Amino acid sequence: MSHPLSPRWLSRPQDANALHAGVWPESAQRLESGELEVGGVTASDLVATYGSPLYVVDEAELVRRAEQFRDIVTRACERNETVGSVYYASKSLITGHVAQWVSGAGLGFDVASGGEMAVALAAGVPAENLEFQGNNKSESEIRQALEAGVGCIVIDAPVEAERIDRLAAELGIVASVMVRVNTGVHAETHEYLATAREDQKFGLSVEETDVLIERIRVMKNLSFEGLHSHIGSQIFQVDGFLEAATRLMALYVRVVPEGERATLNLGGGFGIAYTAADQAGDITSIIDSIVDHVGALAREAGVLVPHISFEPGRIISGHAGITLYSVGVTKPVIVHADDGLEATRLYVSVDGGMSDNARTALYKATYSARLASRVSDVEPALVRVVGKHCESGDVVVDAEYLPGDVEPGDILAVPATGAYCYSLSSNYNALGRPPMVSVKGGQHQLMIAGETVDDVLSRDLGITRHKGS
To answer: For 25, which of 58, 300, 418, 455 could close a Cys bridge (C-beta 3.0–4.6 Å)?
Structure first.
């Protein structure tokens, strides 16, 4: 029987120790001792070495997913007699190691700031494999991109075309550009994740794009390369992608001269499972449907099939990451319902929270959790995993069943945290951001050093100057 406080989507498990396939990295398993092992390394060894909270990235899982997506796109495009490209969405997770792994898998990079561009370049990613976008690129960022020789800049507003043309002229080069189109297709997702609504900051309407492309074609230092679209994030169904492609192709046929081939970049946003209740679509079927649809529309219009690009992020990095926490406090809370009944929810407080995973507070995102340091045959209890921040909304996992004897000192693991957790991390309440480590083949290495309180204080000149006086 379900707990009266449990959300409808969450089922009481027969085994609260089980790791649900499709949520955890493929290497995740329970040892005979009951400990969680990922990439051949146990959770307790990692916490003993690096402390907690701790971001853990399964290198083999991330690379496998990058190569899989690359191969799916390549096969679908070859079948439609065109070329496919994949640009990893750096905003999901970008570090020097990740950039090297993804580049080694043959993917390019979608960078959305000068900082992300700098990380990729410093990690050795060829500049021509970078695609630079964003709704408010500064002139210094645009110059940085042009001087580095990035492959393409995605224009988000007419004023950007003027800026890029002027800066390219100063440098004596011709800049390759695309135009981001707001197709009006609404992804069925959280409002803040839907990026093709008319009343929002990204892209241009179809009509505005028509006018801008005419202007670009007469600018001496710009070369029009194609159209870009992104309809949102954490999308499970293919329908929105197909409708966006239909609208883009109608525009493409008008703006690309007969006999020429430009690029149609259909973005990313492919969803993943965060809990056993999530039913993510089969990515091979989704990509095949999108590419075949574009191919059919091109043939129907009598034009060459565009060069097709995608920008996956979460679907590559998400399941490659888990976060380890240490339990500090457990507290049963009696909740009185409107009908007069009462029920108990067990609050489990960990040593991290919204500073290392803002998604639950920001998007009402759902996550799973499991004991990582042991197993237990005690009956499952409905828990809410919360952080240590001074916020009532500081929730890591809103609802989950864990063994009822979860206690201080236990290690908890939250899967599918490889995307947008480190990227959105902060120093809220003056906490240092956690370290990040990679695991592979029984070995582990530090990727990002954790921040101490001294690190946080070192940027505060009121403190550093006071100490020096």
So the answer is: 58
